[in-house]
Protein backbone atom coordinates (compact mmCIF):
# COMPACT_ATOMS: atom_id res chain seq x y z
CA UNK A 1 0.00 0.00 0.00
CA UNK A 2 2.35 1.76 0.49
CA UNK A 3 4.03 2.93 0.71
CA UNK A 4 2.48 1.84 1.37
CA UNK A 5 3.57 2.36 2.06
CA UNK A 6 3.36 2.20 2.74
CA UNK A 7 1.72 1.56 2.25
CA UNK A 8 2.98 1.23 0.82
CA UNK A 9 2.02 -1.85 -0.97
CA UNK A 10 2.43 -0.90 -0.36
CA UNK A 11 -0.15 -3.08 -2.29
CA UNK A 12 0.50 -1.29 -0.17
CA UNK A 13 1.64 -0.36 0.05
CA UNK A 14 0.57 -3.01 -2.52
CA UNK A 15 0.58 -4.01 -4.64
CA UNK A 16 2.14 -4.65 -6.72
CA UNK A 17 4.23 -4.61 -8.73
CA UNK A 18 5.15 -3.69 -7.24
CA UNK A 19 2.60 0.14 -6.21
CA UNK A 20 1.21 0.70 -3.59
CA UNK A 21 -2.64 3.39 0.87
CA UNK A 22 -4.22 4.65 7.87
CA UNK A 23 -4.71 5.36 11.50
CA UNK A 24 -4.50 9.03 12.28
CA UNK A 25 -1.06 10.54 12.62
CA UNK A 26 -1.63 13.31 15.12
CA UNK A 27 1.67 15.12 15.11
CA UNK A 28 2.18 17.35 18.13
CA UNK A 29 1.66 20.98 17.50
CA UNK A 30 -1.27 23.13 16.54
CA UNK A 31 -3.43 21.47 13.91
CA UNK A 32 -4.46 23.42 10.86
CA UNK A 33 -8.05 22.35 11.31
CA UNK A 34 -8.10 23.07 15.01
CA UNK A 35 -6.51 26.49 15.00
CA UNK A 36 -9.06 29.00 16.25
CA UNK A 37 -9.92 31.91 14.03
CA UNK A 38 -7.96 34.99 14.95
CA UNK A 39 -9.09 38.56 14.83
CA UNK A 40 -6.23 39.46 12.54
CA UNK A 41 -6.86 40.24 8.89
CA UNK A 42 -10.09 40.54 6.97
CA UNK A 43 -12.49 37.61 6.77
CA UNK A 44 -12.08 37.59 2.99
CA UNK A 45 -8.40 36.73 3.35
CA UNK A 46 -9.23 33.89 5.75
CA UNK A 47 -11.76 32.47 3.32
CA UNK A 48 -9.30 32.71 0.46
CA UNK A 49 -6.70 30.77 2.45
CA UNK A 50 -9.29 28.17 3.36
CA UNK A 51 -10.31 27.72 -0.29
CA UNK A 52 -6.64 27.45 -1.30
CA UNK A 53 -6.02 24.82 1.36
CA UNK A 54 -8.94 22.68 0.27
CA UNK A 55 -7.89 23.03 -3.36
CA UNK A 56 -4.57 21.47 -2.33
CA UNK A 57 -6.43 18.77 -0.41
CA UNK A 58 -8.52 18.00 -3.50
CA UNK A 59 -5.37 17.76 -5.63
CA UNK A 60 -3.76 15.40 -3.11
CA UNK A 61 -6.91 13.26 -3.06
CA UNK A 62 -6.76 13.01 -6.86
CA UNK A 63 -3.08 12.01 -6.72
CA UNK A 64 -3.88 9.29 -4.19
CA UNK A 65 -6.92 7.96 -6.03
CA UNK A 66 -5.36 7.98 -9.49
CA UNK A 67 -2.02 6.62 -8.32
CA UNK A 68 -3.52 3.84 -6.24
CA UNK A 69 -5.97 2.78 -8.95
CA UNK A 70 -3.33 2.84 -11.70
CA UNK A 71 -0.77 0.95 -9.63
CA UNK A 72 -3.22 -1.79 -8.69
CA UNK A 73 -4.42 -2.25 -12.25
CA UNK A 74 -0.87 -2.25 -13.64
CA UNK A 75 0.16 -4.78 -11.02
CA UNK A 76 -2.67 -7.03 -12.12
CA UNK A 77 -1.71 -6.46 -15.76
CA UNK A 78 1.82 -7.63 -14.97
CA UNK A 79 0.49 -10.95 -13.72
CA UNK A 80 -2.10 -11.37 -16.47
CA UNK A 81 0.56 -10.93 -19.17
CA UNK A 82 2.81 -13.63 -17.77
CA UNK A 83 4.70 -11.88 -14.97
CA UNK A 84 5.38 -14.20 -12.06
CA UNK A 85 8.01 -12.68 -9.74
CA UNK A 86 6.54 -11.81 -6.34
CA UNK A 87 9.77 -10.19 -5.19
CA UNK A 88 9.92 -7.98 -8.26
CA UNK A 89 6.33 -6.93 -7.62
CA UNK A 90 7.29 -6.14 -4.04
CA UNK A 91 10.37 -4.23 -5.18
CA UNK A 92 8.54 -1.91 -7.60
CA UNK A 93 6.06 -0.83 -4.93
CA UNK A 94 8.75 1.29 -3.27
CA UNK A 95 11.54 1.49 -5.87
CA UNK A 96 10.24 4.79 -7.24
CA UNK A 97 10.99 6.62 -3.98
CA UNK A 98 13.75 8.81 -5.55
CA UNK A 99 10.90 10.78 -7.13
CA UNK A 100 10.07 12.02 -3.65
CA UNK A 101 13.49 13.68 -3.36
CA UNK A 102 12.33 16.04 -6.09
CA UNK A 103 9.30 16.96 -3.96
CA UNK A 104 11.51 17.30 -0.88
CA UNK A 105 13.64 19.82 -2.77
CA UNK A 106 10.73 22.29 -2.55
CA UNK A 107 10.18 21.57 1.15
CA UNK A 108 13.66 21.46 2.69
CA UNK A 109 14.04 20.50 6.33
CA UNK A 110 14.65 23.30 8.76
CA UNK A 111 17.29 22.76 11.41
CA UNK A 112 15.98 22.50 14.93
CA UNK A 113 17.66 22.77 18.30
CA UNK A 114 15.91 19.59 19.37
CA UNK A 115 16.88 17.33 16.47
CA UNK A 116 16.00 13.68 16.98
CA UNK A 117 19.12 11.51 17.42
CA UNK A 118 20.16 9.99 14.10
CA UNK A 119 20.62 6.57 15.66
CA UNK A 120 17.07 6.43 16.96
CA UNK A 121 15.47 7.64 13.73
CA UNK A 122 17.63 5.24 11.70
CA UNK A 123 16.43 2.29 13.79
CA UNK A 124 12.82 3.40 13.39
CA UNK A 125 13.21 3.69 9.61
CA UNK A 126 14.77 0.23 9.42
CA UNK A 127 12.05 -1.45 11.48
CA UNK A 128 9.22 0.28 9.62
CA UNK A 129 10.90 -0.39 6.28
CA UNK A 130 11.13 -4.12 7.01
CA UNK A 131 7.48 -4.23 8.06
CA UNK A 132 6.57 -2.40 4.85
CA UNK A 133 8.51 -5.03 2.87
CA UNK A 134 6.49 -7.83 4.49
CA UNK A 135 3.29 -5.89 3.86
CA UNK A 136 4.12 -5.38 0.19
CA UNK A 137 4.99 -9.04 -0.22
CA UNK A 138 1.59 -10.05 1.17
CA UNK A 139 -0.10 -7.61 -1.21
CA UNK A 140 1.87 -9.04 -4.13
CA UNK A 141 0.79 -12.58 -3.35
CA UNK A 142 -2.79 -11.49 -2.76
CA UNK A 143 -2.96 -9.80 -6.15
CA UNK A 144 -1.49 -12.90 -7.78
CA UNK A 145 -4.11 -15.24 -6.31
CA UNK A 146 -7.17 -12.98 -6.52
CA UNK A 147 -9.00 -11.05 -9.24
CA UNK A 148 -8.34 -7.33 -8.94
CA UNK A 149 -11.99 -6.67 -8.06
CA UNK A 150 -11.95 -9.08 -5.11
CA UNK A 151 -8.49 -7.90 -4.03
CA UNK A 152 -9.53 -4.24 -3.89
CA UNK A 153 -12.74 -4.88 -1.97
CA UNK A 154 -10.89 -6.89 0.66
CA UNK A 155 -8.41 -4.02 1.01
CA UNK A 156 -11.30 -1.87 2.22
CA UNK A 157 -11.02 -3.75 5.51
CA UNK A 158 -7.99 -1.57 6.32
CA UNK A 159 -10.38 0.98 7.86
CA UNK A 160 -11.63 -1.61 10.34
CA UNK A 161 -8.06 -2.51 11.26
CA UNK A 162 -7.34 1.21 11.50
CA UNK A 163 -10.02 1.60 14.16
CA UNK A 164 -8.71 -1.38 16.11
CA UNK A 165 -5.11 -0.15 16.23
CA UNK A 166 -6.27 3.39 16.99
CA UNK A 167 -8.19 2.08 19.99
CA UNK A 168 -5.37 -0.15 21.24
CA UNK A 169 -2.40 2.15 20.61
CA UNK A 170 -3.84 5.65 20.78
CA UNK A 171 -7.02 5.16 22.85
CA UNK A 172 -9.32 6.48 20.14
CA UNK A 173 -12.95 6.80 21.22
CA UNK A 174 -15.23 4.25 19.55
CA UNK A 175 -18.55 5.80 18.59
CA UNK A 176 -21.66 4.15 17.19
CA UNK A 177 -20.86 5.30 13.67
CA UNK A 178 -17.32 3.96 13.83
CA UNK A 179 -18.51 0.60 15.16
CA UNK A 180 -21.12 0.52 12.40
CA UNK A 181 -18.36 1.11 9.87
CA UNK A 182 -16.22 -1.68 11.34
CA UNK A 183 -19.10 -4.16 11.28
CA UNK A 184 -20.01 -3.32 7.68
CA UNK A 185 -16.44 -3.51 6.37
CA UNK A 186 -15.87 -6.78 8.24
CA UNK A 187 -19.08 -8.19 6.79
CA UNK A 188 -18.01 -7.19 3.27
CA UNK A 189 -14.66 -8.94 3.73
CA UNK A 190 -16.35 -12.08 5.08
CA UNK A 191 -18.70 -12.18 2.10
CA UNK A 192 -15.75 -12.09 -0.27
CA UNK A 193 -13.90 -14.68 1.79
CA UNK A 194 -16.81 -17.07 1.32
CA UNK A 195 -17.07 -16.33 -2.41
CA UNK A 196 -15.07 -18.84 -4.45
CA UNK A 197 -16.51 -18.04 -7.86
CA UNK A 198 -13.41 -16.16 -8.95
CA UNK A 199 -10.88 -16.36 -11.75
CA UNK A 200 -7.15 -15.88 -11.32
CA UNK A 201 -4.29 -15.27 -13.73
CA UNK A 202 -4.02 -18.89 -14.74
CA UNK A 203 -7.68 -19.36 -15.52
CA UNK A 204 -9.07 -20.28 -12.14
CA UNK A 205 -8.23 -19.79 -8.49
CA UNK A 206 -10.30 -21.99 -6.25
CA UNK A 207 -10.19 -23.65 -2.87
CA UNK A 208 -6.89 -23.37 -1.04
CA UNK A 209 -5.29 -20.77 -3.31
CA UNK A 210 -8.28 -18.47 -3.07
CA UNK A 211 -8.25 -18.79 0.72
CA UNK A 212 -4.50 -18.08 0.85
CA UNK A 213 -4.97 -15.00 -1.33
CA UNK A 214 -7.84 -13.82 0.83
CA UNK A 215 -5.91 -14.27 4.08
CA UNK A 216 -2.74 -12.63 2.73
CA UNK A 217 -4.66 -9.61 1.41
CA UNK A 218 -6.52 -9.32 4.70
CA UNK A 219 -3.23 -9.60 6.59
CA UNK A 220 -1.66 -6.95 4.35
CA UNK A 221 -4.54 -4.57 5.08
CA UNK A 222 -4.10 -5.09 8.81
CA UNK A 223 -0.34 -4.65 8.57
CA UNK A 224 -0.78 -1.40 6.64
CA UNK A 225 -3.01 -0.06 9.41
CA UNK A 226 -0.38 -1.11 11.97
CA UNK A 227 2.34 0.68 9.99
CA UNK A 228 0.42 3.96 10.08
CA UNK A 229 -0.31 3.51 13.76
CA UNK A 230 3.40 3.03 14.46
CA UNK A 231 4.16 6.10 12.35
CA UNK A 232 1.68 8.04 14.46
CA UNK A 233 3.46 7.03 17.65
CA UNK A 234 6.80 7.92 16.06
CA UNK A 235 5.65 11.42 15.18
CA UNK A 236 4.11 11.94 18.60
CA UNK A 237 6.92 10.59 20.75
CA UNK A 238 10.13 10.75 18.71
CA UNK A 239 10.13 13.18 15.79
CA UNK A 240 7.79 15.72 17.39
CA UNK A 241 7.65 17.97 14.34
CA UNK A 242 4.65 18.97 12.25
CA UNK A 243 6.32 19.77 8.95
CA UNK A 244 5.80 18.46 5.45
CA UNK A 245 9.49 17.61 5.14
CA UNK A 246 9.34 15.48 8.31
CA UNK A 247 6.45 13.43 6.92
CA UNK A 248 8.16 13.21 3.53
CA UNK A 249 11.42 12.04 5.11
CA UNK A 250 9.53 9.27 6.87
CA UNK A 251 8.10 8.16 3.53
CA UNK A 252 11.44 8.33 1.70
CA UNK A 253 13.69 6.54 4.14
CA UNK A 254 11.29 3.75 5.05
CA UNK A 255 10.83 3.19 1.29
CA UNK A 256 14.61 3.11 0.90
CA UNK A 257 14.89 0.33 3.48
CA UNK A 258 11.93 -1.55 1.97
CA UNK A 259 13.44 -1.30 -1.53
CA UNK A 260 16.80 -2.62 -0.35
CA UNK A 261 15.14 -5.48 1.55
CA UNK A 262 13.08 -6.38 -1.53
CA UNK A 263 16.21 -6.35 -3.67
CA UNK A 264 17.93 -8.71 -1.22
CA UNK A 265 14.87 -10.98 -1.33
CA UNK A 266 14.88 -10.93 -5.13
CA UNK A 267 18.48 -12.17 -5.32
CA UNK A 268 18.31 -14.49 -2.30
CA UNK A 269 15.24 -16.26 -3.68
CA UNK A 270 16.85 -16.78 -7.08
CA UNK A 271 13.95 -15.08 -8.87
CA UNK A 272 16.35 -12.67 -10.52
CA UNK A 273 17.65 -15.49 -12.72
CA UNK A 274 14.22 -15.91 -14.30
CA UNK A 275 13.62 -12.23 -15.08
CA UNK A 276 15.14 -12.35 -18.59
CA UNK A 277 12.99 -15.34 -19.51
CA UNK A 278 9.97 -13.66 -17.94
CA UNK A 279 10.54 -10.55 -20.03
CA UNK A 280 10.95 -12.60 -23.22
CA UNK A 281 7.66 -14.42 -22.75
CA UNK A 282 5.70 -11.38 -21.58
CA UNK A 283 2.67 -11.52 -23.87
CA UNK A 284 2.65 -7.86 -24.86
CA UNK A 285 6.41 -7.66 -25.48
CA UNK A 286 9.63 -6.63 -23.77
CA UNK A 287 9.01 -2.89 -24.04
CA UNK A 288 5.57 -3.31 -22.51
CA UNK A 289 7.15 -5.37 -19.72
CA UNK A 290 9.58 -2.60 -18.83
CA UNK A 291 6.95 0.13 -19.10
CA UNK A 292 4.58 -1.84 -16.87
CA UNK A 293 7.19 -2.03 -14.14
CA UNK A 294 8.27 1.61 -14.52
CA UNK A 295 4.76 3.05 -14.50
CA UNK A 296 3.65 0.79 -11.68
CA UNK A 297 6.50 2.19 -9.60
CA UNK A 298 5.71 5.77 -10.64
CA UNK A 299 2.01 5.26 -9.90
CA UNK A 300 2.73 4.12 -6.36
CA UNK A 301 4.88 7.19 -5.76
CA UNK A 302 2.17 9.47 -7.15
CA UNK A 303 -0.16 7.82 -4.66
CA UNK A 304 2.38 8.31 -1.87
CA UNK A 305 2.65 12.03 -2.67
CA UNK A 306 -1.13 12.22 -2.26
CA UNK A 307 -0.90 10.31 1.02
CA UNK A 308 1.84 12.57 2.39
CA UNK A 309 -0.01 15.69 1.26
CA UNK A 310 -3.24 14.61 2.97
CA UNK A 311 -1.35 13.70 6.14
CA UNK A 312 0.20 17.16 6.18
CA UNK A 313 -2.91 19.16 5.23
CA UNK A 314 -5.49 17.16 7.23
CA UNK A 315 -4.51 13.87 8.88
CA UNK A 316 -3.48 10.33 8.03
CA UNK A 317 -6.95 9.21 9.10
CA UNK A 318 -8.45 11.36 6.36
CA UNK A 319 -5.83 10.03 3.96
CA UNK A 320 -6.90 6.49 4.83
CA UNK A 321 -10.55 7.39 4.24
CA UNK A 322 -9.77 8.75 0.77
CA UNK A 323 -7.72 5.66 -0.02
CA UNK A 324 -10.60 3.41 1.00
CA UNK A 325 -13.08 5.49 -0.95
CA UNK A 326 -11.01 4.92 -4.10
CA UNK A 327 -10.98 1.14 -3.67
CA UNK A 328 -14.50 0.49 -5.04
CA UNK A 329 -13.40 2.21 -8.27
CA UNK A 330 -10.84 -0.51 -8.99
CA UNK A 331 -13.36 -3.40 -9.34
CA UNK A 332 -15.18 -1.46 -12.06
CA UNK A 333 -11.96 -1.07 -14.05
CA UNK A 334 -11.13 -4.70 -13.29
CA UNK A 335 -14.35 -5.83 -14.94
CA UNK A 336 -13.67 -3.67 -18.00
CA UNK A 337 -9.93 -4.31 -18.39
CA UNK A 338 -9.51 -7.89 -17.17
CA UNK A 339 -13.08 -9.21 -17.52
CA UNK A 340 -13.30 -10.06 -13.84
CA UNK A 341 -16.57 -11.68 -12.90
CA UNK A 342 -18.72 -9.17 -10.98
CA UNK A 343 -21.28 -11.46 -9.39
CA UNK A 344 -23.98 -10.64 -6.89
CA UNK A 345 -21.76 -11.25 -3.88
CA UNK A 346 -19.14 -8.77 -5.10
CA UNK A 347 -21.77 -6.13 -5.85
CA UNK A 348 -23.29 -6.51 -2.38
CA UNK A 349 -19.82 -6.41 -0.79
CA UNK A 350 -18.98 -3.24 -2.75
CA UNK A 351 -22.19 -1.50 -1.65
CA UNK A 352 -21.63 -2.54 1.97
CA UNK A 353 -18.04 -1.23 1.79
CA UNK A 354 -19.27 2.12 0.45
CA UNK A 355 -21.86 2.26 3.24
CA UNK A 356 -19.17 1.55 5.83
CA UNK A 357 -16.90 4.21 4.31
CA UNK A 358 -19.65 6.85 4.37
CA UNK A 359 -20.42 6.00 7.99
CA UNK A 360 -16.77 6.46 8.89
CA UNK A 361 -16.52 9.69 6.90
CA UNK A 362 -19.62 11.13 8.57
CA UNK A 363 -18.15 10.46 12.02
CA UNK A 364 -15.02 12.37 11.05
CA UNK A 365 -17.18 15.21 9.76
CA UNK A 366 -18.92 15.38 13.14
CA UNK A 367 -15.59 15.33 14.97
CA UNK A 368 -14.22 18.11 12.78
CA UNK A 369 -17.38 20.18 13.26
CA UNK A 370 -17.17 19.74 17.02
CA UNK A 371 -13.49 20.74 17.04
CA UNK A 372 -14.22 23.91 15.06
CA UNK A 373 -17.03 24.96 17.39
CA UNK A 374 -14.99 24.32 20.54
Low-pLDDT ranges: 1-42, 198-203
Count of helices?
14
Task: Please state the average pLDDT score.
Answer: 77
Q: Structural class of the secondary structure composition?
A: mainly alpha
By DSSP, the count of extended strands is: 0
Task: Determine the fraction of residues in helical runs and give it as a percent range.
Answer: over 70%
Q: Which series of helices and strands comes N to C? A: HHHHHHHHHHHHHH
Based on Cα principal axes, name the global outline. globular
Instruction: Give Rg in angstroms.
Output: 20 Å
Proportion of β residues? under 5%
Termini gap: 35 Å
Describe this structure in words.
The chain has 374 residues and is an all-alpha fold. The protein is 70% helix and 0% strand. α5 runs antiparallel to α13 (329-338) and α6 (158-170) runs parallel beside α8. The longest helix is centred in the first third of the chain and has 38 residues, at 43-80. The chain is globular and about 60 Å long. It starts with 42 loop residues before the first helix and ends with a helix.
Q: Mind sketching the topology for me?
A:
Layout: H1 43-80, H2 86-92, H3 98-105, H4 118-145, H5 148-155, H6 158-170, H7 176-193, H8 207-239, H9 244-268, H10 275-280, H11 286-313, H12 316-326, H13 329-338, H14 344-373
Helix pairs in contact: 1-11, 1-12, 1-13, 2-4, 2-9, 3-9, 4-8, 4-9, 5-7, 5-13, 6-7, 6-8, 7-14, 9-11, 11-12, 12-14
List keywords for this structure.
disordered N terminus, 374 residues
Kindly summarize this structure in a few lines.
The protein is mainly α. Helix content is 70%, strand content 0%. Helix 4 packs across helix 9.
Amino acid sequence: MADDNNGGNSNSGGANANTTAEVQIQIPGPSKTEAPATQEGPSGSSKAKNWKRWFVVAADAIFLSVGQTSATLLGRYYYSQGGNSKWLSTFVQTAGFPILFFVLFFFPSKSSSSETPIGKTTMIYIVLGLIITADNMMYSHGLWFLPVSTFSLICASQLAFNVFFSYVLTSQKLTGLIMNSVVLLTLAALLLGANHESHGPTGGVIGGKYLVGFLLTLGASGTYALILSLMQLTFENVIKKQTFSAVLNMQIYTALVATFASLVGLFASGEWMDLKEEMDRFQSGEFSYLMTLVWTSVSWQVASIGVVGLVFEVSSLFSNVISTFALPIVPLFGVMAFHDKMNGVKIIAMLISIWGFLSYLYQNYLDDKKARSA
